[in-house]
Design goal:
Blueprint (H helix, E strand, L loop, with lengths): L1 H24 L2 E7 L7 H8 L2 H4 L2 E7 L3 H9 L5 E4 L2 H8 L6 E8 L4 E5 L15 E3 L6 H12 L9 E3 L7 H7 L4 E5 L2 H8 L3 E5 H5 L5 E6 H6 L1 H20 L2 H8 L8 H13 L11 H13 L9 H4 L3 H8 L1
Parallel strand pairs: 1-2, 1-3, 6-7, 6-8
Antiparallel strand pairs: 3-10, 4-10, 5-8, 5-9
Helix pairs in contact: 2-11, 11-16, 12-13
């Protein structure tokens, strides 16, 4: 009897010891590079602040690269393990003959995140009102610019012939250039669009996200070698993202604003909530991490319309859905 009790206690102690060692060994430090700091990426900040990454044994080191080219440079040079950036960048890298293919494995946003802002109120706005106007656009080759041109063409507007199109302003300087310049219209992300409206510097009159449909606008991607060498970390990372996506869907814009406030200290909480609500309303936040084939084809159509598709890359070459499917299935 005493021997059996002793063995049972010993087995329990060994189980606790092994579990503790396994948890410690399973902890991964991930360098995550985001292309910019944006309310558009609210589920990512929720995953960090609500401890969903930590629950999966992942320590996140978040860095903001401020640009798609810089984000991809960080990823390809091992300055980052995972990047949050537009899916179009994986196509650009592939076209340049990268030896270590960049793979999209978890989607975060599924619409464009910009809004059409006008200097003057336009209560009866029609897209044809843009013809002949001065339009401050986004960086050539980036998703905002390509989606913008795609939407304009859907409304029979040739952006390069029917507009006085300005595209030589850096991303970070676009709001200031619009406020102080002659442009009549501009594409802006939140919360800048709502800030401009509140301050009387502009008026939100349309959404490019609503007009363009679903597209893999921002995804988590990594090098193929990372997925091959450490598939379990990629899976745990995706699981944390999926937890955050579910949490965002179930909670109010105000609750989300409360959680992500530390990432936007210069933005008042009511403005944060209003911006989040706008994105929730137009279904910008992906409800799961799967990037489907229809979205990928829509991305390529948009790039092709803008003359920026370097080659027709098949869906299966740059997209891995197996990880996300396993996470959702479990």
């Amino acid at each position: 009897m005493k021997k059996r009790l002793f063995l049972a206690l010993l087995s329990g102690m060994l189980l606790i010891f092994v579990s503790a060692c396994g948890s410690e060994a399973g902890t991964s430090n991930i360098k995550l590079a985001e292309v910019t700091r944006s309310i558009f990426y609210a589920p990512q900040y929720v995953a960090i602040e609500k401890g969903f990454f930590e629950e999966e044994g992942i320590n996140i080191e978040l860095q903001t690269a401020w640009g798609g080219d810089k984000t991809m440079t960080a990823l390809l040079s091992d300055g980052a393990d995972i990047a949050l950036v537009g899916s179009e960048t994986s196509i650009y890298v592939h076209a340049q003959g990268s030896k270590d293919t960049v793979i999209n494995f978890a989607q975060l946003t599924q619409t464009d995140g910009t809004f059409l802002v006008a200097k003057e109120p336009k209560p009866d706005f029609k897209w044809t009102d843009l013809k002949g106007s001065i339009f401050l656009g986004q960086r050539i080759g980036g998703m905002p610019q390509m989606v913008g041109e795609y939407v304009l063409k859907q409304h029979n507007i040739n952006p390069h012939a029917d507009l006085d199109l300005i595209q030589n302003v850096d991303f970070g300087n676009i709001p200031g250039a619009f406020a102080s310049g002659d442009a009549e219209y501009v594409q802006l992300f939140e919360p800048t669009a709502s800030k401009f409206e509140k301050e009387g510097k502009g008026h939100i009159i349309a959404s490019f996200g609503e007009e363009s449909g679903h597209v893999p606008y921002t995804t988590f991607m990594t090098k193929e070698s990372f997925l091959n060498d450490d598939p379990q970390t990629a899976k745990r990372f995706t699981k944390a993202v999926y937890k955050a996506q579910n949490w965002v869907q179930k909670n109010s814009a105000q609750d989300i604003a409360d959680v992500i406030q530390p990432y936007f200290e210069d933005t008042k909480k009511d403005m944060l909530a209003a911006s989040i609500e706008r994105y929730k309303k137009q279904e910008s936040f992906a409800t799961d991490p799967i990037l489907d084939k229809e979205e990928w084809n829509n991305l390529k159509n948009i790039m092709n319309e803008a003359g920026e598709l370097p080659e027709d890359v098949p869906y299966g070459d740059l997209v891995n859905t197996q990880i996300a499917e396993e996470v959702i299935g479990n």
